[in-house]
Amino acid sequence: MVIKILGLEDNVNSINDIRKFVKKSQIHQINIPNKNKFLIETEGIEFFDSLNVMDQLKKINSIKMNFDICVTSSWTTSRLAYLADMKYIINFVGNDIRIPPFIKNSKPFYFKEKVNDLNFLQRIFYKKVLDSAAACVAASDESYNDLKKYRNDGIRIDRTIVNTKLFHPDIKPIEMKKRKFTFFSPQRIGREKGVDILWKALPLCKSDFEILQVDWCDETSEEAKIVSNEILQKKPPQVKLIPKIPRKEISRYYAFADAVLGEMRMGLLNNIEREAALCKKPVICYYNPNMKYLLNNKTVLAPFLPNSNDPSHIAEIIDKVVESEQFRNELAEKEYDFVKEYGDPDKAAEEWDNVFEKIHHNLKRQKPSRFKSFLRLLLFNFSHNLFFKDVKLS
What we know:
Blueprint: E1 3-9, H1 14-21, E2 25-31, E3 46-47, H2 53-63, E4 69-72, H3 75-83, E5 88-91, H4 120-131, E6 135-138, H5 140-148, E7 155-156, E8 182-185, H6 195-201, E9 210-214, H7 222-232, E10 239-242, H8 247-256, E11 259-261, H9 271-278, E12 283-284, E13 293-295, E14 298-300, H10 311-323, H11 325-342, H12 345-362, H13 370-383
Parallel strand pairs: 1-2, 1-4, 2-3, 4-5, 5-6, 6-7, 8-9, 8-11, 9-10, 11-12
Antiparallel strand pairs: 13-14
Helix pairs in contact: 1-12, 4-13, 6-10
């Protein structure tokens, strides 16, 4: 029996990638429209017609009986599944479990201002969204340890699907003139990704190179916008800004570059590092060896460098990559081998199929309660002071 799943996602590709590779499950995906839609592979995805929460909820209510389970990847999509009284699984990516909205005045360690300035009832609402999930999934030591603070039944899937059809060593590079050794840096300009740290390292470098930096800034909060603009004002001479790149084209930029620059603050792997490594490009990113991965029941370390985000250490690795062909080839080979296993789409999809199968088997099939949905909607509207207002996503 094929398990029918409704996928609800924002501006990431986590569910989309799972959708393409699962074999025992069938996922129909609906995304919330976002200005960063260029980041998404849109083929086969439906989009909500409106940003109005009530319109979105109406859409879900009209189709929810066609699905066995719902899987979400953000608080805005999880709350829709909660309001519709669906059986849902939350796949935590990024800051969603690191900085949960039910914790008072929560903020990332690299900002001064709080990110979640929610009132008491709003925090209660989002804690209920978490507690009502049929299951919660997180990856690696970092995210899974955060999840364990709030759910003792969290599921750990360290493998993160990388679309091997889109990212592989045989990609045809873009046609562009290369003047010197060229790094590609597609991450957001901001403090979260450590661009400020990277740009402090560049004046310490002795080698000659150019960086193609995608011109988009972190705008996740007012402080993030201000900080990103401040960082941008200090752009080093090696950095050349280029326009935003559609996801379907980004692999050709990986192929064009001599090496890729990843994140320099959190010490973990994100999409950029995984995708570039599968294109067999040497990736320089800060990797904290305390962040371990569980693969084939074994704890392993990722071979990415440097293992410190001190600007002098970053500069040292940059110079070695630029100046030593042997070093960068060996680094690229190690990173490729790791991500080929860690991001294996078939192995990761099998783990997700097993989760879907287990949750579906353990859940008692029952019709969603209109009364329960009404009470949840009442709490949502009351806590957010949204009565008689055009309710849009925050």
